[in-house]
């Protein structure tokens, strides 16, 4: 009996020691959500529903689109995520990559949109961040100013680092969207080196044709195609009452991520947003 008890205690001691000294590979969930700007639909009516969706996602990192500070939308997100910090500048902040034309559209009434990235400070440490414009040059470029926010994160549990990019592409022309993705992949190539990258956002298009070629040229793989498990509908938005998948999460250096789940949460409606959010759960290899 004493011998068996000693063996049991030794085994338990080994397990406890291993747990203490071997860091756990904690899963990270990242989500993208276009909350629809407040002047498009009744924000006071939608605010509680959007907050509930954000909490239901239970993500560690969020990339939001169409977040307007003046409509109290930014404050709503902050209140829904009290333990989170965020990075990202609005269109009007004088960021690099916005031409005179795009600054004039801001004076003409274009919404002062953020593409912020919120992150759980208990699991994620911010290393660096920034926001840049993704527009063509001159008067013939995309009509609305478009931006991209990036952040380099360090996982507290593992020490692994990766980049997250969050954007909202042009809503009119596929050629402009592919140009904007090329600007983002060029920035990734210059900035990120061999560090793994996640790109998310409202692309305003399915990943097909020229967009698919542009993403492949930037060595970006769709999270859905590399995930072990997928949940929810494929589509994320209705365009002229036609269901389409336009909100995406992609990865670069896919072997660096163990993507366990890719999920679309069915929630769009008059009391939330006209987009469904997308989440991806992964661990770093």
Model description:
- Strands 4-6-2-1-17-16-12 form a 7-stranded mixed sheet.
- It starts with a helix and ends with a strand.
- It has 285 residues and is of the alpha+beta class.
- It has helices at 2-21, 43-57, 73-80, 100-107, 174-191, 209-217, 223-226, and strands at 28-34, 61-65, 67-68, 84-87, 113-114, 117-120, 124-133, 147-155, 161-168, 197-202, 220-222, 230-231, 237-239, 242-244, 247-252, 257-264, 278-284.
- It has 7 helices and 17 strands.
- 29% of the residues lie in helices and 31% in strands.
- It has a single domain, classed as Deoxyribonuclease I, Chain A, CATH 3.60.10.10.
Give the SSE map.
Blueprint: H1 2-21, E1 28-34, H2 43-57, E2 61-65, E3 67-68, H3 73-80, E4 84-87, H4 100-107, E5 113-114, E6 117-120, E7 124-133, E8 147-155, E9 161-168, H5 174-191, E10 197-202, H6 209-217, E11 220-222, H7 223-226, E12 230-231, E13 237-239, E14 242-244, E15 247-252, E16 257-264, E17 278-284
Parallel strand pairs: 1-2, 9-10, 12-16
Antiparallel strand pairs: 1-17, 2-6, 3-5, 4-6, 7-8, 8-9, 10-15, 11-15, 13-14, 16-17
């Amino acid at each position: 009996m004493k011998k068996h008890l000693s063996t049991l205690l030794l085994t338990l001691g080994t397990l406890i020691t291993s747990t203490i000294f071997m860091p756990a590979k904690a899963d990270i969930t990242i989500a993208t959500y276009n909350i629809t700007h407040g002047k498009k639909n009744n924000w006071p009516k939608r605010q509680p529903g959007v907050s509930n969706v954000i909490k239901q996602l239970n993500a560690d990192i969020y990339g939001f689109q169409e977040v307007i500070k003046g409509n109290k939308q930014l404050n709503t997100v902050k209140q829904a995520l009290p333990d989170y910090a965020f990075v990202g500048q609005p269109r009007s902040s004088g960021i690099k990559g916005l031409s005179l034309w795009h600054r004039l559209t801001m004076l003409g009434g274009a919404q002062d949109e953020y593409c912020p990235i919120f992150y759980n400070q208990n699991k994620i440490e911010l290393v660096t961040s920034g926001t840049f414009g993704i527009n063509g040059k001159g008067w013939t470029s995309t009509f609305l100013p478009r931006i991209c926010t990036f952040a380099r994160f360090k996982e507290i549990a593992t020490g692994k680092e990766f980049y997250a990019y969050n954007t909202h592409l042009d809503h009119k022309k596929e050629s402009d969207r592919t140009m904007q993705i090329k600007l983002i992949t060029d920035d990734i190539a210059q900035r990120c080196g061999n560090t793994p990258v996640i790109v998310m956002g409202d692309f305003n298009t399915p990943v097909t044709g020229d967009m698919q070629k542009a993403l492949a040229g930037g060595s970006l793989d769709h999270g859905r195609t590399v995930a072990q498990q997928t949940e929810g509908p494929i589509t994320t938005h209705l365009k002229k009452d036609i269901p389409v998948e336009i909100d995406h999460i992609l990865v670069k250096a896919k072997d660096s991520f163990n993507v366990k789940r890719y999920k679309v949460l069915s929630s769009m409606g008059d009391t939330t947003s006209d987009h469904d959010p997308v989440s991806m759960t992964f661990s770093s290899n």
